[in-house]
């Protein structure tokens, strides 16, 4: 029996809700749009029209894969971050709403800095650096990433966001000293921060699909915070700021790590759920 696009979407949403999915409305809409090859606006416009059997079958196959754990962002190849539609692949982490706090804090700071250079270290899809560039027109942003496959996604997203004039991507290892990258007013970083022993306990949608190198923060989860605070401080301009996203329960230790490397005026910022999510500090200079 033929179903309308609206009924197909509603049925997908019902099944997602029954499965305990956190955002059933969003995910049902994205899966239906992708299966039908329609934008959100086209889906709303054509809601009363009948979907072909092929489209319905494709939507239900996508739903089945998702219910087995495969994230919607990887199924459809894109996701939205800070109102920017971005290309996504299995080689990068899926941008999360929690990470928008990191972008927002950096944007607030940079709006008063005039023309400046910003580094997004461990850039992944480039989501944070691209959000910064989109909302601070005076900023020139470098997306630094070790994975060649992730760099391809960065380049795609630079073009997709129309930011080729102010954003570039470079291959760089966050665990090594920066080489010939110049000086930055601000470094933003969402590093790997899951303790190695905890990786196998993660939800299947993360453990089996997202890139391990973007998750593994070493034995205690703090490996990259230590290395970046020590090695990359030399890439900051005097008085520049370093912004980190942190995992649950990590903020106080990251604050201590940054303080030990000469950062002052260190602040902890909570996300919308009240969880400490961002730690940032200013590079102190000797008088």
Automatic annotation (TrEMBL):
Ranges for domain Methyltransferase small come to: 108-194
Query: What is the protein's species of origin?
Result: Oscillibacter hominis
Protein's UniProt keywords contain Lipid metabolism: no
Residues binding S-adenosyl-L-methionine, per UniProt: 145, 190
Show the NCBIfam families listed in the entry: hemK_fam, RF_mod_PrmC
Q: What range(s) does the Release factor glutamine methyltransferase N-terminal domain occupy?
A: 13-77
Q: Which InterPro entries match?
A: DNA_methylase_N6_adenine_CS, HemK-like, N5-glutamine_MTase, PrmC_N, RF_methyltr_PrmC, SAM-dependent_MTases_sf, Small_mtfrase_dom
Q: What is its EC number?
A: 2.1.1.297
Query: Its function?
Result: Methylates the class 1 translation termination release factors RF1/PrfA and RF2/PrfB on the glutamine residue of the universally conserved GGQ motif.
Keyword Magnesium in the entry? The reply is no
User: Which keywords accompany this UniProt record?
Assistant: Methyltransferase, S-adenosyl-L-methionine, Transferase
Class of the enzyme per the UniProt entry, highest EC level: transferase
Q: What is this protein called?
A: Release factor glutamine methyltransferase
Positions contributing to substrate binding = 190-193
User: Reaction catalysed?
Assistant: L-glutaminyl-[peptide chain release factor] + S-adenosyl-L-methionine = N(5)-methyl-L-glutaminyl-[peptide chain release factor] + S-adenosyl-L-homocysteine + H(+)
Q: Which family does it belong to?
A: Belongs to the protein N5-glutamine methyltransferase family. PrmC subfamily.
* UniProt GO BP: methylation
Signal peptide positions are none
